[in-house]
Specification:
single chain, 249 residues, alpha/beta, Spore Coat Polysaccharide Biosynthesis Protein SpsA, Chain A, 7-stranded mixed sheet, 8 helices, 35% helix, globular, disordered N terminus
């Protein structure tokens, strides 16, 4: 017997999926998200259509007629992955938000572990997926290894893989973050900056189902370096927030 459709009136969890030109990956991924979460949490799925020019919007529209917990946001033009995640989080109704890439490489079966790590850890602001057995090309894996190594040496965020799309976090914590393009790659360092802990969950990578990658690694080297310097500066300038009490007359 299939689980009942989750209520969208008061979801406790919002799943945000940024996509651009992923029409053929829409249906199977939504089915897998449902298989992982149905009956466990009241949840909604928010697809952020980041200026797609294929049938992504039409595929989502068709499924929305069948699933009342599926929402679609559309960017008039592509703003990039960080912009898409931010749009989804701002529109989310759940106190906990989980993200995953829309190409099928992130397995939704790991969503419950990520969500539970945030839900059950009072000081945990972010649960970050850490990929094992990556299915990317050798060059992409090398690129990622170098970028993560340089970032960790400078920021000391203790995270070996910030590029994994599988994450879960408290919505209120994300909204504290200063927004910039590439924010999603610096979440561990910025969440620690706000005084929260990070939980790590190993996730098994898999090949994308179809299509080609739309969101790359640090494709623009100098911008990536400037972002890294900017986040380092933000961390250095952070001071402990004094305890605040209201004085009544």
């Amino acid at each position: 017997m299939s689980s009942p459709q989750p209520s969208v009136s008061q979801p406790s969890v919002s799943i945000v999926v940024p996509v651009r030109n992923e029409a053929d990956n829409i249906v199977p991924l939504i089915e897998e998200i449902g298989a992982a979460l149905d009956g466990r949490w009241a949840y909604e799925i928010i697809y952020v259509n980041d200026g797609s020019t294929d049938a992504t919007g039409e595929r989502l529209g068709a499924i929305m007629k069948q699933r009342d917990n599926l929402r679609q946001l559309r960017h008039a033009r592509s703003g990039g992955q960080s912009a898409a995640v931010r749009s989804g989080v701002r529109a989310a109704r759940g106190a906990i938000v989980a993200t995953l890439d829309g190409d099928g490489q992130n397995n939704p079966a790991f969503l419950p572990d990520l969500i539970a790590a945030v839900e059950n850890g009072s000081k945990v602001g972010l649960a970050a997926g850490q990929r094992v057995g990556r299915k990317d090309t050798g060059f992409k894996k090398f690129q990622s290894r170098v970028a993560n190594g340089v970032r960790n040496a400078i920021l000391k965020d203790g995270t070996r893989d910030t590029g994994c799309g599988l994450k879960a976090f408290r919505r209120e914590v994300f909204l504290m973050m200063p927004y910039f393009d590439g924010l999603h790659r610096f979440l561990p360092a910025l969440v620690r900056r706000e005084g929260y802990e990070i939980a790590y969950v190993d996730v098994i990578d898999r090949p994308r189902r179809s299509g080609v990658s739309n969101y790359g690694f640090f494709d623009r080297l100098w911008i990536g370096i400037m972002d890294l310097v900017g986040v380092w500066w933000l961390i250095r300038r952070k001071k402990p927030t004094p305890a605040v009490t209201e004085v009544k007359a």
